[in-house]
Amino acid sequence: MEDITTFFSCLHKRFNTEDDLSDITWSLLKTSKEFKNIFFKFLFDDELKDVDMIIREKSFNNSRPDFYLKDKKNKKEYIIEVKKDDLNIHKEYKKEFEHMSRAFIANYNGNDSIYGTNKIYQFVRNWESFVIYLENEITKADKCFNLLLIGYLCYLKKAINYWEAKTMNLSYTISITTYYNMLNKIVIDLKLSFKNGLRGHGPTFYGNYIDYFYSKSKFETFWLGFYLNELPPVLCIEYDKYNGPNETNFFYFDGENKLYLKEEFNLNLILIICH
Length: 275
Prior knowledge:
single chain, 36% helix, 2 domains, 5-stranded mixed beta sheet
């Protein structure tokens, strides 16, 4: 089982966008009848056993829902819109697909604009509820399908930043103060500057953006902090080599405080910070 969870964890490191989540879910729907029945029952309150067409991003005029389903036997059609945190709910789908059953699943709960009096979607769900639903199904599954569900759950939890509630140990929160005081000393000693206007922390990471001025007007920005969706949390440095999207280099420290480089580039700035 460890190999299965490791594989899906590694899969998430490379494939973690909203489209990736849809692609991997689609792959499982095409592979396993058991998963197909579970997913459709969760979304539509029905197993939809006779669905024989599952198309990823089928185009309709100017619309392209994430999943299009067709039950040829009963001549029924369905669409599913998949979201993580994207708030574009596609209001046009109500008119475009009014003859179909429409389901919506996201990382947030729907509001009146989704399923209120206008009813853009007849069925609205969230990923956290699906995680709990799948965990209940695992106990009923045979051995082979059980492993597949465990692997997919491992991927899904990481993809949606699912965090299970655990007992808090407040005695360790002093480490946050220690981290900040240490970082503040580095910034002062090396004549660096905290970056204003950038939020350096969120549900799965905690850190700070810092500017390194190598002349009066020229500087580089990097982020130093912890990724909290790993256990134990991982201390990382993030450096945007080209100041553009998807061009970020990550450095991380292992348990022996060795610095590992994810992608090779000039280490001068990083070595200054790690001094």
